[in-house]
Amino acid sequence: MNEILEILSKNAKTTPAEIAALLGMAEEDVAKEIKELEDSGIITRYITLINWEKLEDNPVFAVLDLKVALQRKTGYDSVAERIARFTEVESIRLISGDHDLSVTIRGKSMKDVAYFVAEKIAPLDGIQSTCTHFILKSYKEHGVIPMERPKPKRLVITP
To answer: Which listed site, 24, 131, 146, 152, has its alpha carbon 20 to 30 Å from 96?
Structure first.
């Protein structure tokens, strides 16, 4: 099962036939295991990794670190669930260290992201402080290095 997940995590378009050939299994068994993984919620979605930097009008991404003041009878989950409902939020995680939540957000511009943080996140009940880090360049996303490196050019050697 873990081997199938590893293969799909690297390329979600890998077919059951290809996985079966790699693992020495029957294609039907692989398809059955994938279906069980989907039905149990272990596989929740297949995503496409996009190199946003290649677009002319690429979005701006930022990581927002939040300190949360917990209210009585509510925990991090309730604050995180409210924040997760915003369409600008790409991901949200409970973290250790100086901050409590790490939120990745996407906007059309730096101004758009700053407005979102100031007007929608900072005023929420329980948010003590925010710290915004704009992502200037991504060197690796989901295990993939998106940078295109020029092919090395060999010098012609003449006698």
So the answer is: 146
